[in-house]
Amino acid sequence: MARGQLLVSGILALCTTLCHAADDIKTLRVPDGPGPAAPVVGGSFVSYSIEFANFHDFVGNASHPNDLTLRLVQNLANVAGSYPRIRIGGSTANRATYVPDQEQAILLNFTTPGADQPTSLTWGPSWLRGFDVLPSKVKYTLGLPFNSGAAGEENTLASAKAAYGGLQDKLYAFQIGNEFDAIWAKQWLERSEAVMDMLSSSFNRGRDPIFQTGVFVPPGSITSDTSWTPQAAIENGVTSQGTVNSFSIHQYFGAACYATPTLASSILNHTWLETNMKFHEVTSNFMTLHGIKYIIGETNSIACQGLAGVSDVFGSALWAVDYALYAASLNVSSLHFHMGTGYRYSAWQPRLNGTTLPGPRPLYYGHLVAAEALAGGNKQVKILASEPSFSAYGIYTNGDAQKLRHIVLVDLREHLSSATARPTTRIRKGQVITAKRLSAPGVDARTDIEWAGQRVSDEGNVEGEVVLETVKGGDVELAAGEVVMLSFTPRCKSGHTRS
Ligand SMILES: *[C@@H]1O[C@H](CO)[C@@H](O)[C@H](O)[C@H]1NC(C)=O
Ligand SMILES: *[C@@H]1O[C@H](CO)[C@@H](O)[C@H](O)[C@H]1NC(C)=O
Ligand SMILES: *[C@@H]1O[C@H](CO)[C@@H](O)[C@H](O)[C@H]1NC(C)=O
Ligand SMILES: *[C@@H]1O[C@H](CO)[C@@H](O)[C@H](O)[C@H]1NC(C)=O
Ligand SMILES: *[C@@H]1O[C@H](CO)[C@@H](O)[C@H](O)[C@H]1NC(C)=O
Fold this sequence. Notes:
With 499 residues, this protein is of the alpha/beta class. The protein contains 9 helices and 26 strands. The two termini are 13 Å apart. Bound molecules: 2-acetamido-2-deoxy-beta-D-glucopyranose (NAG) (5 copies). This is Beta-glucuronidase C-terminal domain-containing protein.
């Protein structure tokens, strides 16, 4: 190692306060680089998905923009160095009908009052003005309806035509249908070809890829049929026409409508994360080998719009950091956290919903932390530790001699706000670093969350001074239910030596 450089690899020693003997010290081996298989992660890795029926709630329109959404998206871009991508879709995209002469942007038809989602909806041309609200660098993936028969095809084509005309360069991809299961390959190809023909005749557009295909859940998650896999979709020819730019799969870590997951059994459980990510590891490697971008295109903690006490508390922020960095270590090119108005797992509530105030939710803090760890893109992530309640990630800059940029430590222990004692882990390291901490009174907290001393107000403003903990020689403490991000300056004044 050249004189004057920081030690960028080595060993971190971890000792929990509950243990005293020397053999209770865990060590974290930190390699020089992420290894040859690590993919390069872009700055928009942490991205969003918004329920079709609620997009207008989230953005408003050009004359009445939703300032909260504008600020929260901008905060994330300020940290990450690029804007999140946004997918508009979900179950309500299947139930959407384009009505060319409808004056109102969108009309939602609720057959069950108070339900999370309308039974059907219609939208008119002014709905597209919602795409003028966020900065023009934000790119969208839009879900088109996929009903069968001539009327179904007509609706797909009319929706695609209006949307393409309105979005133009802001459109990254169209999806056709949401969570359609087996045997759609033939129908999907016919429908996507019909859209391609329409784009060619109406807009003189060539055959550059414009579809994001897949858009289903991992096999076995809804029905016991496990035959319908992404590999089967490829074998059935969904990419054979050369019109597909990416493959999307959805992921949740439990479902509120089938069972009642708990924080400890679902999201504060790194073992469960690993179990679920096995599928994405195998599938993303397969897609990468076939030259197709693999996206986790709709995801969040607990399906069926989330679960209060799990999806909307601080534990979800810890989970989001763990999940995002884990996924970033695989061949996954972006992660789209889904949200809708009133959904328990939304990273923010876009407007007053009943008595629920608009504002950021705990999950949003997890997004800020993960985005900061991957800031600037061109990052590579290596998993350094994977234990049931603890994980650690090394974040490296691709192609930089001084590669190690951050180590992110995630303590997933279920420390509740009401608990008196809070166990901690001490981290002993060998070089000058700074630390930032994501903390709250407990994993069940909905308020009083801080990321390095800063909070995000209900209006979406980041408030307070950044608190950087300087770590020189001494130990860093990580409490139960916290995240700490250690940062290593890329270049350093001469004179530092390894200690
Ligand atoms: C924009 O939103 C406001 C408030 O919801 C509404 O009154 C107005 O009609 C909308 N404008 C357009 C062009 O849809
Ligand atoms: C609302 O949905 C119900 C149930 O699908 C349907 O019968 C009704 O026609 C719909 N109303 C409108 C205005 O679309
Ligand atoms: C949002 O409003 C709907 C309809 O009034 C209600 O059923 C739901 O519980 C509300 N959600 C939240 C999080 O307040
Ligand atoms: C965590 O998930 C694993 C794998 O599903 C499961 O065996 C274990 O019981 C879970 N832990 C808790 C505390 O529920
Ligand atoms: C990414 O995919 C390629 C091609 O399948 C594979 O060689 C590589 O090992 C994968 N990387 C990871 C981290 O799995």
